[in-house]
Specification:
The longest helix has 26 residues. The N and C termini lie far apart (59 Å). Helix 4 links the parallel strand 4 and strand 5. The protein has an 8-stranded mixed sheet, with helices on both faces. It has 163 residues and is an alpha+beta fold.
Length: 163
């Protein structure tokens, strides 16, 4: 049997390169399509809100941003407890996401679909998504799942790492 008609490894690898590259470009598009659109309402003067939006976009969420001078009326209408209020409010898949919640926690919420109003990270912990400070160690913080009259710990994080 002769090898004259079999492609060399190099030819095979060169032939697969365009296919592999095309697949790698296609995968993020498929992931973005699988996630529901997120609507983020924020103050236009808040820098960390923009950083958080960049975080969730990088994680594959399609995001629409609405800028308003006062987000408080929306928080009240959506049932965000005062103690959990932060600088921006997102709506996604029938849930509310308040503050600097990591994208992975949001994906878990959407996968598990618990009966709740939403998730929140109270305040602005250093190292949470959008609140990274170069040279400063990230804080530990809790992602809280909430609904009317009920709050429980959904996850604990240090920076972007679940602990």
């Amino acid at each position: 049997m002769t090898n004259a008609f079999l492609p060399s490894r190099r030819a095979l690898m060169l032939g697969l390169a365009p296919t592999t590259a095309g697949l790698m470009l296609w995968l993020p598009a498929v992931a973005a399509e699988a996630l529901p659109k997120m609507t983020v309402t924020r103050d236009p003067n808040c820098g960390c809100c923009g950083n958080w939006v960049a975080h969730v976009r990088t994680a594959g969420f399609p995001v629409e941003v609405i800028e308003v001078a006062d987000v408080a009326p929306l928080k009240t209408r959506l049932g965000v407890p005062d103690a959990l209020a932060s600088c921006h409010t997102a709506e996604i898949g029938g849930y509310v996401v308040e503050g600097h919640v990591p994208a992975e926690a949001i994906k878990r919420l959407l996968a598990e679909r618990p009966k709740a109003t939403g998730l929140a990270v109270a305040g602005m912990p250093v190292g949470s998504p959008g609140m990274e400070v170069r040279g400063q160690a990230p804080d530990s913080y809790e992602v809280v799942i909430f609904s009317a009259g009920r709050q429980n710990i959904f996850a604990r994080y240090r920076g972007l790492d679940q602990i």
